[in-house]
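Q: How would the structure tokens look for this protein?
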Amino acid sequence: MTTPGRPRDRNLDSAILTATLELLAERGYLELSLEEVAHRAGTSRPAIYRRWPGRAPLALAAIADRLDTPAPPDTGCTLCDLSEGIEVFLAAYRTIRPDVLSSVFADCSAEPSLRDLYIEAIVEPPRRAVAHTLDIAIERGDIRSDADRDGLLDMLASVVHYRAVFQSRHLTEEDAAAVVETLLRGAAVDYPALVEHSATHH
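A: Here is the predicted structure in token form.
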């Protein structure tokens, strides 16, 4: 029996999250069973409930773990770094079934605390994936200093989320490139110069 104050078993946490992701991929959110998660992770329902208070928080924790991607490098090429940041994130995002995202959203939308968890787990990662790159681009002078930085992040994050949740399909690399081009043509000081610089990095 776990005594109060004893550190959580991180290996068990990982096993539970892995089992959850596997079941989400195989059966979807609506068929996600904590009994099956416990069986696959080699633990019990009470052990899961000690960590996550229900199905939605567990699913969100598993998805957040999958979407925890590293920030893109600073290569000196704004277009390259921004595109890579989105592509790294999308590679992880595409491993989550669109119907899972929409089902979890429906389950969380009426409860403010769950809705906040959903935003942090699913909506915020694409913002974080490109925020550092945008900040560097502004400092470098590739993006106007008066550009709405948070608005740009919202646009990039929202289009990724909208396609998956409301259109049941993930943003493709071609779609992502088109979104970046549309945004930067309006935000960049000299977009043709960014394109030319990008070409020298391939």
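The chain has ten helices and no strands.

The two ends are 57 Å apart (CA to CA).

Upvote if useful.
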